[in-house]
Amino acid sequence: MAQASTPLNATVQQVTQRIRERSAERRALYEERMADQHKRGVHRAELSCGNLAHGFAACGSEDKNSLKLMNSANLGIISSYNDMLSAHQPLETFPETIKAAARAMGSTAQFAGGVPAMCDGVTQGQPGMELSLFSRDVIAMATAVGLSHNMFDAALYLGVCDKIVPGLFIAAARFGHLPAMFVPAGPMPSGLPNKEKARIRQLFAEGKASREDLLEAESESYHSPGTCTFYGTANSNQLMMEMMGLHLPGTSFVNPGTEMREALTRFATEQAVRNTEPGGDYRPFYKQIDERAIVNAVVGLLASGGSTNHTMHLVAMAAAAGITLTWEDFTDLSAVTPSLMQVYPNGQADINHFQAAGGMAYLIRELLDAGLIHGDIPTVFGTDMTAYTQEPFLEDGKLVWREGPAESLDTEVLRSVAAPFAATGGLTVLDGNLGRGVIKVSAVAEEHRVVEAPVKLFEDQNEMKAAFEAGELDRDVIAVVRFQGPKANGMPELHKLTPYLGVLQDRGYKVALVTDGRMSGASGKVPAAIHMSPEALDGGPLAKLRDGDVVRLDANAGTLEARVDAHVWADRTQYVAELDHYHVGLGRELFAGFRHLAMRGEEGAGVFGGFEADDLARQAGLIHDLDA
Description:
Blueprint: H1 10-22, H2 24-40, H3 49-56, H4 61-68, E1 74-79, H5 94-104, E2 108-114, H6 120-123, H7 132-147, E3 154-158, H8 164-174, E4 180-183, H9 194-205, H10 211-221, H11 233-243, H12 259-274, H13 285-288, H14 291-304, H15 310-320, H16 327-336, H17 351-357, H18 359-369, E5 390-395, E6 398-403, E7 427-432, E8 435-440, E9 450-458, H19 461-469, E10 477-481, H20 486-489, H21 498-506, E11 511-515, E12 528-533, E13 550-554, E14 559-562, H22 566-571, H23 592-597, H24 612-619
Parallel strand pairs: 1-2, 1-3, 3-4, 9-10, 10-11, 11-12
Antiparallel strand pairs: 5-6, 7-8, 8-12, 9-13, 13-14
InterPro entries: 6-phosphgluc_deHydtase, Dihydro-acid_dehy_C, DiOHA_6PGluconate_deHydtase_CS, ILV_EDD_C, ILV_EDD_N, IlvD/EDD_N
Family: Belongs to the IlvD/Edd family.
Pathway: Carbohydrate metabolism; Entner-Doudoroff pathway
């Protein structure tokens, strides 16, 4: 069994310490606020009789009687359920399961509120994608509204996909006086192999497959309730929640609609009751999640080759808990974190294959034994992370945990620290006269990691598609898709471009993408410098580029440079794009305030400011309120 006392890797220790030191003031203010909220009342005992009567008016008599007693726990359920999206459809039945499990414990649970859940797979390449990133902050606010009634002793967060879990996490941090339990739905069973899906997508991009062929392939891939099975942002979310001890051990990748999934949801409810003050083992979020948990999430992300979206989400999530996480932290941790997983797009397997090969129990055991994660963090399940080397089983219908496998059952999918797929985590920061961005190289072959070529500039992904179809990109080229940042148009994913770039690379050309937008949790084999900061609309140097400028992207050296004479570069003016067409239609006009407030990608691309960091700066007279 892995030991929590394994000496911590020196770099992991150093990064954790510098995060702790740079965050000291804002973290102290965060903890002070959470402790104060706890003192003022965690639950319904603070409500007047009239408040309380409104709060349980719709309940049955049994629940009403329990709610009148202040020594029983009441759980608030926040859910991203809808029945259009496969990942969230299984959540439909969870509230009733949770309520029944709570009653069996002599407690209650109420559905506190729903949050929106949109799918980047549906909106990919469409105007609705421009609402995607901002939906994270809408979810955080919607969660806050649901929990604002102050009826609850703990909260259960039911969410899965890209922006939903980060949004729920941000809200959980701001309600940090409440114990938190994250409850996943699980991935759909395996469908069409990822290699075949990618092949048909590329054939369609070349005009060699019909739309009917493409739709059939996509339908065979995304075919049933559950999360998509590739290793994108949704499954990265689940892995990170387990790495931080916010899930039950081994719960992330159990398929929906199974007896095990049902048992885990019941047990999550029971454990949430135990973790409340009335339950006798009070474990508030703010005492559980600190810089050690955040570092665990980053290391888990890097070891698994997870989603680049989390170079923004984790920054925003950490900030909500009073912690300042930077891209340098990702880079330094990546240098010492071996790559242990190959799940599509980093390989051909899917997340179900990872689960079968040993899953989270094996991955966490390896990272603990190598001293790459903090074993001493409190969790929803126990006092440290050693319990997370176990996996759940059913014995006569009862849920038990046993030690997970000591060896990987498929080394093409999951490997040990001693024999990794690569020595590093495959994620790095690029820096140079074009600004700063991130690049995921875990799926990029070594021969494609350095590209020097003339640029072709685009202000819309559809422009690039048209140029590809017209044969204008049949050469060595770095495609620059700019004015795609959060202030410009909400920072949509540009994953639609992946097949076209892949075709060009397969034709033997040196190609890369540079953008101040996002690529995807499914960033693939073509080098892509993404989240470029500052964005073109915000004075970023991408706006200085002109068609034909030579740019060098060197993922090995961590540099991104326009090879333009320094004097010419300094004298160039910023090109200003016409963006009005991005701001109207499909509700985009409602998000004008979000675009105005959005921070840089490097700062998390959120709209909430720096939380305690802003307060401390105001106290020091460094910034002023807008209405001052």
